[in-house]
Design a protein that fits this description.
The complex is a heterodimer of chains A (78) and B (407).
Chain A: H1 8-24, H2 29-51, E1 56-59
Chain B: H1 7-19, E1 27-38, E2 44-49, E3 54-59, H2 61-64, E4 76-86, E5 91-101, H3 107-121, E6 139-144, H4 149-158, E7 164-169, H5 177-187, E8 194-199, H6 213-220, E9 226-230, H7 238-242, E10 245-246, H8 250-257, H9 261-296, H10 299-345, H11 347-352, E11 357-360, E12 363-364, E13 376-380, E14 385-389, H12 403-406
The chains are: A mainly alpha (78), B alpha/beta (407).
Amino acid sequence: MKNDEMGLEQALERLEQIVQTLENGKMGLEESLDLYERGMELVRLCEGRLQSAERRIECLTGELPADLRGDGKAADTF
Amino acid sequence: MTQIFTVTDLNERIKERLEGDARLRDIWLQGEVSNYTHHRSGHRYFTLKDRESQISCVLFKSSGASLGIAMKDGMNIMAFGDVTVYRPQGRVQVIVRGVKEDAGVGFRYMQMEALKKKLAAEGLFSPERKRPLPAYPERIGIVTSPQGAALRDVLKTLGAYPARIILSPAQVQGEGAEESLARAISALRGMCDLVIVCRGGGSIEDLWCFNSETVARAIAGCDVPVISAVGHETDITIADFVADVRAATPTAAARLAVPDAEGIRQSILSSRVRMMRALWTAHERRAERLEYLKRAVSARRMGSIAADARQRLDYLSARLDAAAAERLKASRSRLEKAAARLDAVGPAATLQRGYAIARSKRGLVMAAGDVRPGEVIELILAGGWLLCRVLEERQGGGEREEHEGAG
């Protein structure tokens, strides 16, 4: 699975696995540097996910009320 | 003759008529209490109802002082009082002067208790059925009224948590609310990781649809965990019993639904620190090992290794030389033998045995007819050669005649 298809939960789980593998320390230098890189990618991914204030609200039937519509960043409007 | 009334006149007429009716004075009225409010003024306002109708009631402070029971919604009572009309609103109401509790609970509560028992017997409330909430839901379904405050409370509390929110609008009170709620819950099938079914506070009637079997079964049949949040903290409906998690309020439901973003940030930060520490520890271990190996391979030891190598090289090259010489000797002897064998089959050895080779101008003489009498030929012998003239040519096998004797 590509990183951008990964949900926050999966990303956090994988990150935890990587941290544990690194902490086990049973791997070569190259391998552990690769893992570290992958871990940092996941860190960036997770932080990105958290920072994206974009919240998508959709309505199954009918229209969303006006106060909930709009740019999706309207967290401060209610 | 048609009379024109003012509103006030009409209400006054109705009031006179009703309050003048002796049959509507000092009555006992049987019904279930709802919308009960004990006002600051000390007066109590409530509605009495049965399966089909309801009527407003007032119990003034003066009458309430001697009230023997604590009234509350859902309670079945017998009220004593008079029918009056509140003229400013044209409202018919009962001024209650005395109350006693009716035997048993209200009809709806009886119904609800029966349903609760039935569903409990089916195991719909059992703890084993409760599903754990997803730790990081990505798609959150909300079943509620799009206009309600509950929805706004939920959205506000979800805050900036990065999830897709799917609103499945439902009618949350009144006629048809049960079916509407059940439809809205089913409509979310396969679309969410988590469903919140919620509604803000209201009278017990308003919340009653959440006590229906239809809604209970819809919640039980939902493909993902359901959080229910109906009314206020004290309102507990059958929906709450069936739901995987019951939240006291919509706000509480939202808080239960998603992890605290700050908590996640902390855990990411901790992962970063742990990774770096792990790398650093590994690096230090390697450095230590390198140091150890460096000490083990001292300069002296390096010299000794080099000397060993040198010696081995000499030994090997000596062996190589010896092998090469041996090879050469063998080759030479083979060559000599081959040359000897070659001599044995060549013409030289044959000539040694007394044969001669005859050669004319046209080449080797193999038969008597190859030359003519008088022609000069060469005879090659083992030692030297002769130039000869042919005297006579005879065909046949090799009997020789003495030339002088025969001629």
